[in-house]
Amino acid sequence: MNRLFPMWALVAVTMSACGGAAAQAKSEPCCDDKPAAAAAPVAGLPAEAVCPVSGEKFAPDANTKTAQYKGKTVYFCCPGCDTKFAADPTKYEKNIQ
User: Fold this and answer.
1) Structural contact between residues 76 and 53, judged by C-beta atoms closer than 8 angstroms
2) What proportions of the chain, in percent to the nearest 5, are helix, strand and coil?
């Protein structure tokens, strides 16, 4: 009987449940105060943006918080993310596309 199988199974289940170590390391947990449903697309906004704080892809709408950073418009997936970004924008600079 191979005793390594149960250890391998435990590691696989743990990585699946946690979303993988790499997924956790690249972004922060996001806010719980997101809008329940996405609003209709607004002219002039991109169809998809990536929040520099959470790393989430989302469709910006008229209520989406934004900031200007080094000549780029940054979109935030929830109000808590804009606050975190404002406190230390250089921390999230590498996540701005």
Assistant:
1) yes
2) 35, 10, 50
pLDDT reported for residue 20: 38
Q: Both tokens of residue 15?
A: 């990585």
| 2, burial (CB in 10 Å: exposed 0-12, middle 13-18, buried 19+) | exposed
**Residue 4 reports pLDDT greater than 60:** no
Residue with tokens 């469709």: 59
The single-letter code of the amino acid at 88 is: D
Q: How far apart are CA 90 and CA 37, in angstroms?
A: 31
Per the confidence metrics, is the pTM higher than 0.70?
A: no
